[in-house]
Amino acid sequence: MRQRLMRHPANPRLPATMQAAQNELLTRIGPGTACGDLLRRYWQPAALLDEFDPRLDPRMADRPVKAVRLLGQDLVLFRDGSGRWGLLDRDCPHRGADLAFARLEPEGLRCPFHGWKFAADGRCLETPAEPPGSTLCQRVRQRSYPLRVQSGVIFAYLGPEEIEPPALPAFDAFVAPASHSFAFKGLWQCNWLQAFEVGIDPAHPSFLHRYLQDAGLDDTYGRQFRAASAGDVKGERWPMTRVMREFCSPEIRHEDVAPGLTRLTTLRLIDEALTHVRVTHAAFPHTFVIPLSETVTITQMHVPVDDTRTYWYSFFTSFDAPLDKETMRRQRLAHMSLPDYVPLHGRHDRWNFNPEEQRTRTYLGMGEDDINLHDQWAVESMGAIQDRTREHLGSSDKVIMAHRRALLKAIETVRGGGTPPGVFSAAAAAEQTGPDTMDCIAPAARWQAHWQEAAAARRAAAPWLRQPAPAAT
Asked: Which value, in Å, is the radius of gyration of the alpha carbons in the chain?
């Protein structure tokens, strides 16, 4: 039966609250669940390449093997002696022992229980305890999953074996050279949907990320909301923090500009002559693209570990100079515990809440350096799986409502044997370029043309991308 959201009392076209069954449908992602079947139709980040760097994890120098939990499945990710990556189910098909503890040999993984050995593609290579002449090995295969390494991340496809994996869209994050891209991640103790929804909420930065004083503009590298917006107000450059603080009731627009891609435009009227324009994008099912600065964008994916934990993966893309990866990595690792990229702060220490800071420096009171902690508190404090039946949504939540409707529709599409939005053939994926983001102060009378001109100029000046992307229709 087709799922329908309840209607908004002030606007019958908008849903107001979610039914418990719908919340369950959209948040359960394990094998055999409806939303899990949907998410398995897309490439999902399984690990950072950094996780196999011995400088960050010395264990990887001799044994590049890592236990991975992804979409509620326990897997083992490894690199064999020839440099080939493999991703296998963790339970040995013989008696179910954990292959994350397997012996790494040049040809693959050998289970220490009875010596069965498996190649990166899942083929059983040896069953040494069997009698001579046994053909058991030829009849056993461990489930393996397609992998691709892109932009510093190892992606996995957990979809049905009979369905060809889709192509990744030709987004800037996936086509920029290594010199101009950097990837990082972090773990949140919550369901994937609430993790994603904070990023497509254009209203929350005016409150959750509000700084009561603005910092200088000379130390903003790699720090979100600290850099100045492009343009000026009467000759004065304004940091994004000031715009967010002083104009907290924006006009929010959203429009579908390509299959599975929604443009979000947030307007904050500064005066009769100027308006602040922030342009971001939501890519179905769990990715958003936002500006970090005038020359750097962030593409962030929200990947379910299981029903109650989520990794966010951020891809930073520069349209100007090469990125200083060591600085960006150092800034972010200062707030993480390796090897699993677990934030140092969380529910266990009240997310480092400081009431004095809340009175004098920030609206939230949880630090000025790590903006991810602000979002982490918001999504983790809701509970492991948010109870959306208790929400009271307003018009500023229109993007979140639209995404939930799209999820319900896509689940029905997959149930019916169809192809959900954002699952592309190679030819279709090549057309999904960009998408452009913007954070600028524009003439109020021509803000739309202004931001598009600025985006085109940035793209044309990029040393690795000299041609402007085709305009979205």
From this structure: 23
- pLDDT band of residue 2 (cuts 50, 70, 90) is low
Closest CA to 339 of 62, 65, 51, 78: 51
**What gap in Å lies between CA 155 and CA 239, rounded to an integer?**
35
Ranges assigned E (strand) in 135-292: 147-150, 153-156, 181-188, 251-258, 261-269, 274-283, 287-291
CATH superfamily name and code, 47-156: Rieske [2Fe-2S] iron-sulphur domain (2.102.10.10)
Q: Which of 44, 94, 87 is nearest to 64 (CA)?
A: 87
**Strand 117-118's sheet: what is its strand order?**
103-105, 108-110, 117-118, 124-126
Give the number of other CB atoms < 10 A from CB of residue 126. 15
Per-residue pLDDT of 72-86, as tens digits, reads 999 999 999 999 999
User: Are 29 and 72 contacting, i.e. CB atoms less than 8 angstroms apart?
Assistant: yes
What does the DSSP 8-state code read for residue 145? -
**Residue 237, H or E segment:** none
Q: Considering the entire predicted model, what is its pTM? A: 0.93
Looking at residue 9, what is its pLDDT? Answer: 41
In terms of Cβ atoms closer than 10 Å to its own Cβ (0-12, 13-18, 19+), residue 212 is middle
Contacts of 295 (CB under 8 A, 6+ apart): 318, 319, 320, 321, 458
Measure the CA–CA gap between 259 and 261, rounded to whole angstroms. Answer: 6
Spans of all domains in the chain: 47-156, 172-461
Q: Considering the chain, what percentage of its residues have pLDDT values greater than 70?
A: 92
Structure confidence by residue, pLDDT tens digits, 220-274 = 554 566 677 878 888 888 888 888 899 999 999 999 999 999 999 999 999 999 9
Cis peptide before 202 (omega within 30 of 0): no
Are 150 and 156 in contact, with CB atoms under 8 Å apart? Answer: no
SS3 147: strand
Asked if pLDDT for residue 435 goes beyond 70, the answer is: yes
Helices 20-27 and 398-415: crossing angle in degrees, nearest 10, is: 70
